[in-house]
Amino acid sequence: MTMRTKAGFFFFATLFSLAAMGQQSSQLGYFDFLPQSVVANPAIKPKGKLNIGIPALSSIGVSHRNNWFKPGDFLVSDGNGTARIEPEQILSQIDESAYTGAGLDLELLHVGFQMGGGKHYVHFRAAERMQFALDLPKDIFYLAAYGNVGQHSFENNTANFSGLSVDAIHFREYALGYRYEINEKIAVGATAKYLYGMERVFTDQSSLQLRTDPNTYDLQSSGTLRLQTAGIQGLVSDEGEEIHGDVANYLLGLKNTGFAGDLGVVVKPIEKLQVQVSVNDLGFIKWQSDAATYEGGDASFAYRGIDLTDFIFETGSDFDDALEDHLDSLVNELEDTYDFEATPGAFKTSVNGFMRYGASYEIFGGAKARGSAWANVIHGVGRSAIPFTYSIGYNQTFKHWLQAGVHYSNSSFSTGALGAGLSVNAGPFQIYCLAENFKLANLTKVNLIDDDGSTTSLVYPSNSDDIRVSFGLNLTFGMKDEPSGRPMTR
Amino acid sequence: MHFTRPLITFFIVCLIASSCVKEEIDVEELEYSIQPEFGVPIARTTLKAEKVIENFDEDGLIDVAANGSLSLIYRDSVKNLGVEDILTFEDQEFETTVDLTPLEYTQLVANGSFTAGAVEEFTYTSDEGDRLDSIRFSTGVFSLDIDSEGNFPISGFVRILNEDGTEAFALNFQDQAPPIQISNQVEFTNRLLTLRNDSEISNGLLLEYEVTFTSEAGENYTPGPVTIQSSLTEYAIRTVGGYIAPRTVGLEDLEVELDLFKESFNGNFRISDPSLNLYFENGYGLGLGIEINELLGTTSEGDVLQIPGNNIQPLPVIQASQELGVPVNSVISITNESMTPTVTDFLSFMPQYVNSNLDVTVNPDDDDVTFISSLSQLNVLLEAEIPLYGSISDFLLVDTLDVDIGDLVSDANENDEVDALDIRLFVNNGFPFEAGTQIVFTDSLYNPLDSLFQNPDFVFSSAPVNYDLPAENPNYGRAVGKTPTVIDIPITNDRISDLENATRMIVRVFGGTSNNGADDIRLFANDEMDLSVAAKVRFKFDDDEN
User: Fold this and answer.
1) Does this model's pTM top 0.90?
2) Quick check: ipTM above 0.85?
3) Would you tell me how many other CB atoms lie within 10 Å of the CB of residue B326?
4) Is B424 on the interface with A (CB under 8 A)?
5) Which residue has better confidence, B402 or A424?
């Protein structure tokens, strides 16, 4: 196996192994042992009276999505050590575009406590949030695999790249939440967030196309690509403001500020039924530090070959000079057309807000254990990238030291799968893990065997269209067992 | 109910069932092969008929008629006929003798001098029979030679007089010492001499002379006649007026080169309505008769076609100028109707050179009153006018070029990623002719190695041609619209490798006008052809360790 082949494989594997998109877990709202449950709905009351997250370990949420790279599908093995990459297999996985995303939510600090006999709950948290997504239109793959005049026929002879986008954000979130129990049936909550932006790449406009004339192969590009960035220009050019050099300024001194909020309500219309409704992450960030918009202008350019009409009958140096002048003019026109210029200036983007609706019903309840069935729907708000997701599950609680659940989730851009969660309390020490699905556990291992017999193994989920896992360590105090049976009467 | 244990058990089973590596793929050899094909335009051009003809034939003029039809014009350099070619007057000499009688000698001795003189009439000689009223000389020499057989000193003068008795030329003479011989001359410029023409004399001029003999007493003198010779020599005529007798002057080597036929090619070439034009600019005050002695066509290979003059219909007389300094322009066209064989047939011979010898007859109508001036001349230009209206059939041009594509072959062999290259030629032909080509690559011994096409075929087909109009209509045979043709020429690595030893390239271009010349076509200035060359490259990316 050649080094080039191995390098290619490693590149793709690394690209796709980045962890976690901080997308909301479907089941978090039903794990009230976890102080992090307030993130699902600020009106939820965690069981612990005092909850302290282990700094930087209280919640680590990782996610990864890609809807087209499945090694088991596009590596076709003959069982004798020869595997073949089938471009058609890759293309069959892609719908309209190949999506690749990753995210990481790292909670830095979390403190929450009850007051007023449990009517009030206040929490404070700080978290570092990073998300990245790359959308490659399917036509890019067709172009790479077949070319512009190959076996694949583009619609209207036009390769459409209008879905091409890059979306990345890195910000820190400082949240202060408050829950108030109006009565036994209704509780409301709100979380105010101050957002500190650090880097942003946002594709504002993307409509590039390339048409090839079927007879003459004339090329016509059109459309535009517009990216808004913050914290990037200083890295790639001398004209931007380099924000990463001064660590203190980078961590605390940037001017990218924003606000967001969560609002929620929890209602118990009847004794065993609980309904949760919340709106989360409604907010924006105004980017001002090292902010720039990269725009290519109108990329209308027609290349029909070098036009020799004016000098075709010249000879010798006259022809050479005329050709050189024409080529220079062509290059200048190309540069003017595709000049991706950066214009400094602030801009505002929203964070990925979403609505969450859930309901749980206590199937059985006892002194030692409770079991609830639940259902959950999440969808994005406005231009949010949060997809429509529905889940149904079952959670089991055992006293105050174990809470576990299984569920089934399906979303608009991934296949349905089973997931589970587990929270274990050993005294005040709590450890938990919530897996949205077991796709992470379903792995494909590719062993790359060199000529000298040495093996390099790469492990990747067999189906990575929606990998989400969060886990962490907390300290919880004051968790009480639920009372059993009726209150004793004297 | 205690669901805890079953629940935990279920949970663990789920994890175990769904965890761990489900699939393991050992890869010792990774195969992949993608063969994208990328098409890209390389070059294009629009060839307009006028510009193509201009480039093809840089020495020919292109004439665009009002309706846009094209003609090729070939012209000779101007030949001219000056006064010296038409009027060939010789030097004029006038001789007279003065011989005293004995009585006059007696008076001479007695008186010491005696003057003898007279006015005699001479004729200005014209071999052609001209009867001139006047001659204005621009330059010349008037000479006097006097020879006395006696030894009396003499003096005197000789004058040439105009018709009205005024002096035209004069010279004095004197010689006192024997032998009495005098040679005298004077140069003159811009001198007018009028002559007398009537029933008695033609071109008559008066010569007046006077000789004075002197003698001194005691001297011994010998009498003898005195011969007086006066002459007009080395003269250039500026104008001549009067009756200039008809005469014929030859004008030879009128030649025009038709670059169109500079290169020989096979095929049948036919121009429907050509003409050979003679342009005259006549500054003379008399008409000119033109007769073509012969017309010669010579091909680039030296073949000659001769058309005798009597196969060409008589040509009209060239008009005379009515005013000195104001020439008259005339054109005589030799068309298909005025020549046998026709001009069309003559040009079908594809002559690179057309030669003509003319006889120019001066004053063919025998006019009495004419004039010729040295300021005037006759300018003659031979022109071939070839309207691009006709047909070409079975055109074939073969040429052999040396090639050296060793570097190309090396580069191609080193490039593993390029699997094949197709050259696409897209032609949108608005010309009313079709053409094809074949290129055969050979080694130094002319063994064929490869050819561009498996079977030579038309690279482009003729544009549709309008034959719905009558043949006389100027738009008959005009291309209307364009015919598109797409030709793909596959060039694989194998083909390029085969050309490693190629040293020669034999190019054959064939074709003709629409329907292989079955009907005439007419070429217009705005007829055009769009040519695009593009390449389709097929890459092959695979895990080839070799």
Assistant:
1) no
2) no
3) 10
4) yes
5) A424
